[in-house]
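STRUCTURE:
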C-alpha cells in the first residue's frame, strides 16, 4: 500500500508540471524525515551520486556531440551514405538511418543525433516526394539509436545505478542497435516501393562515392576509435569521451567548419544539459535511498516472486508499465524511477542485468517518440518546422518495429549477449 501511495504522489506532482529532479528529491526528503531518518544522509547521498569517475563521460560526450553538431558533420555523413544507397528505392530513407547509426556511434545522444541528421535529411527527402510525416517519423526513430548504439549516455547512467560493467552494456547494445537500424531501413524500402511516385536518385559513380566517403572518413574514424577503443580495453568510457572530444575539436577546427563562438555555444549547451541530468540523478539518489529504507524494492521483489513464476509474464508487465509511463514521463526519469525498484528482482527471476538494460533502453526509445512528451518528437518538430501531429502520425510504424525488436530480443537473447560474453 505504501508503494502505491508513494508512486501516486510522484505521478501527481509530475502531472502538476514540477521538474522531475525536485519532485524526486523533495519527495525522498519528505519520506526520510517522516520516518525519522537522519537528514545528514541527504547531502551525503547528493555528493556520492555525483562523485563518480564514470559520470565524467556524460558532459564529455555531450560536449563532443555538440562540437560535431555545430561543425556540420551531419551533412558529410548523409552525403557519404547517400552516395552508396541513394539510388535504391527508399535509398534516402536508408541513408538517413545509416547517418543516424553512424552519428549515434559518436554522440551517445538521441537529441543530438536527430538534430544533426535532420537538418540535412528533412529538406532532401521532402524535395524528392517523401511524405513529410514519414520523414519526420523516420528521423525521430532513427535518432533514438543514439541511446542504444554505444556510446550511450543512458547506458552509462544505468551502469552507474546498477554497478554493472559499462563496457559490457556498451557492447551489448551493438547487436540490437544494428538490428533495429536494419529493420528501419527495410521499412523505408518497403514504404518507397509501395509509394511508387518517389523520385529515385541516379546511381553515383565511383569517383563521387570515394570523394564523399573520404570527406566523411574523419568522423567515421572518430566513431571507430571510440567503439573499438572501449571494446578492446584501450581506454575506459570516460577516457574515450575525452579522446573523442579532442578528436572532434581537431576535425572541426582542421576543416574550418566551426568558429570560436560556436565552440563556446557548444560548451554552454553541454553544461546546461549536464546540470539538468546531474540534478535529476541527485534527486533520484535521494528518492532511491528513501524507497530502499522503506523496503519498497524488497516488497516489489516479494510481490513478483509470489505472483510470477516465469520471467516472460514479468517482463510483459514491465514493458506495459514502461509504455504507459512513456506517455507522460521522459526517458531519463523513467530509468531513475524504475531501475532501483526493479533491479533487485532481476536476480530472483534469473534475468541477466546487462540483457535487461538493453531491453529497458529499447522501451525508453519508444518513450522518446510517443506523444505527448516524447523528447525526440519536439526536436524533430523544431528541426522540420512541423506540427506535433505530423511527427506523431509518422512514428507509429517505428514504435511497432521497436516492440517487435523487444520480442526478438526475448526469444534470441544472444542478439545482445553474444558480443559481451561469448566473443
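SEQUENCE:
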Amino acid at each position: 500500500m505504501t508503494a502505491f501511495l508513494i508512486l501516486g504522489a510522484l505521478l501527481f506532482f509530475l502531472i502538476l508540471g514540477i521538474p522531475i529532479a525536485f519532485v524526486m528529491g523533495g519527495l525522498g526528503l519528505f519520506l526520510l524525515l517522516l520516518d525519522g531518518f537522519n537528514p545528514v544522509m541527504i547531502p551525503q547521498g547528493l555528493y556520492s551520486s555525483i562523485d563518480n569517475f564514470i559520470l565524467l563521460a556524460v558532459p564529455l560526450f555531450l560536449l563532443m556531440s555538440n562540437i560535431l553538431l555545430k561543425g556540420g558533420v551531419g551533412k558529410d555523413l548523409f552525403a557519404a551514405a547517400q552516395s552508396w544507397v541513394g539510388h535504391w528505392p527508399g535509398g534516402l530513407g536508408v541513408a538517413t538511418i545509416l547517418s543516424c547509426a553512424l552519428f549515434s556511434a559518436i554522440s551517445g545522444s538521441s537529441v543530438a543525433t536527430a538534430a544533426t541528421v535532420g537538418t540535412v535529411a528533412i529538406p532532401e527527402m521532402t524535395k524528392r516526394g517523401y511524405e513529410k510525416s514519414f520523414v519526420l517519423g523516420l528521423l525521430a526513430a532513427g535518432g533514438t539509436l543514439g541511446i542504444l548504439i554505444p556510446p550511450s549516455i543512458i547506458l552509462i547512467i544505468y551502469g552507474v545505478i546498477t554497478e554493472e560493467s559499462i563496457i559490457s552494456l556498451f557492447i551489448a547494445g551493438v547487436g540490437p542497435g544494428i538490428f533495429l537500424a536494419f529493420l528501419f531501413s527495410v521499412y523505408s524500402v518497403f514504404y518507397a516501393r509501395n509509394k511508387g511516385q518517389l523520385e529515385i536518385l541516379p546511381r553515383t559513380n565511383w569517383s563521387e562515392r570515394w570523394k564523399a566517403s573520404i570527406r566523411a572518413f574523419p568522423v567515421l574514424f572518430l566513431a571507430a576509435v571510440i567503439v573499438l577503443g572501449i571494446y578492446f580495453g584501450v581506454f575506459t568510457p570516460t577516457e574515450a569521451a575525452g579522446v573523442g572530444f579532442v578528436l572532434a575539436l581537431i576535425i572541426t577546427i582542421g576543416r574550418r567548419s566551426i568558429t570560436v563562438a560556436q565552440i563556446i555555444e557548444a560548451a554552454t549547451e553541454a553544461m546546461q544539459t549536464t546540470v539538468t541530468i546531474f540534478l535529476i540523478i541527485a534527486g533520484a539518489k535521494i528518492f532511491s535511498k528513501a524507497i530502499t529504507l522503506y523496503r519498497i524494492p524488497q516488497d516489489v521483489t516479494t510481490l513478483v516472486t509470489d505472483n510470477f513464476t516465469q520471467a516472460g509474464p514479468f517482463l510483459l508487465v514491465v514493458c506495459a508499465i514502461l509504455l504507459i509511463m512513456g506517455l507522460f514521463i521522459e526517458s531519463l526519469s523513467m530509468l531513475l524511477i524504475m531501475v532501483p525498484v526493479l533491479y533487485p528482482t532481476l536476480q530472483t527471476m534469473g534475468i541477466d542485468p546487462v540483457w535487461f538494460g538493453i531491453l529497458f533502453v529499447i522501451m525508453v526509445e519508444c518513450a522518446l517518440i510517443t506523444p505527448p512528451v516524447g523528447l525526440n518528437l519536439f526536436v524533430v518538430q523544431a528541426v522540420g518546422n512541423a506540427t506535433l501531429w505530423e511527427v506523431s502520425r509518422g512514428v507509429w510504424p517505428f514504435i511497432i518495429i521497436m516492440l517487435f525488436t523487444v520480442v526478438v530480443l526475448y526469444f534470441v537473447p544472444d542478439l545482445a549477449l553474444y558480443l559481451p560474453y561469448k566473443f
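REMARK: Residues 2-422 form one domain.
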